Amino acid sequence: MKKWRLVYLQLVFTGMLIGLFGLAGVAISLFIKRAQKGFSLDILLDKPGYFILMAGLLAFIPCLIAFIHILKILRSLKSNATVTPIAASFGIITMCGYLISAVALCLFPVMFIVADRDDAPGLILFAFLLILIPFTFSVISSLLQSLLQKPDSRPE
After folding, report:
1. What is the DSSP letter of 18?
2. Fewest CB atoms within 10 Å of the CB: 24, 43, 111, 127?
3. 50 contacts 43 by C-beta, under 8 angstroms
4. Are 131 and 101 in contact (CB under 8 A)?
5. Is pTM, for the whole model, over 0.85?
């Protein structure tokens, strides 16, 4: 594999990592502003966006860990490292994908309430995508991990 492709992927994932930190900073500042006014159950039920924001912050941590391990895999591929640390990183990425899907699954009832209240059926599709995309990536990562750990069984 050419080195410039790996450098390009490293730059893309580093940019995405910086963007995630920016979004988390905005979300935390919104929570601080709302906390100064005080939280109540009426506000949380009236404005379900705060539940969505909290779920986004919960999903931020495994997403951050997954991006760091993706960068670790790219660095290992660039330096032609052994297979063992790459397979371990794929295992961590798999668990992070499952955690992000679990957070999105817990968020699904809130998204359903918002979609029903705003009469927006496309939001239900978006909620399904929030669940299925990380789950799909974690299944692919699990498959890649098992391919890397399994000894080569092809006849020569």
Report:
1. H
2. 43
3. yes
4. yes
5. no
| Six-digit token string for 30 | 């919104």
Contacts of 119 (CB under 8 A, 6+ apart): none
Count of CB atoms situated within 10 Å of the CB of 44: 15
Q: What type of residue sits at position 28? A: I
Angle between helix axes 3-37 and 49-78 (nearest 10 degrees) is 160
- The closest alpha carbon to 52, from 120, 132, 127, 122, belongs to 127
**For residues 36 and 29, what is the distance between their CA atoms, to the nearest angstrom?**
11
Contact (Cβ atoms closer than 8 angstroms) between residue 131 and residue 104:
yes
pLDDT digits (tens, 9 = 90+) for 50-100: 778 778 888 889 999 998 898 888 888 888 777 778 888 999 999 999 999
Report the C-alpha gap between 131 and 145 in whole angstroms.
22
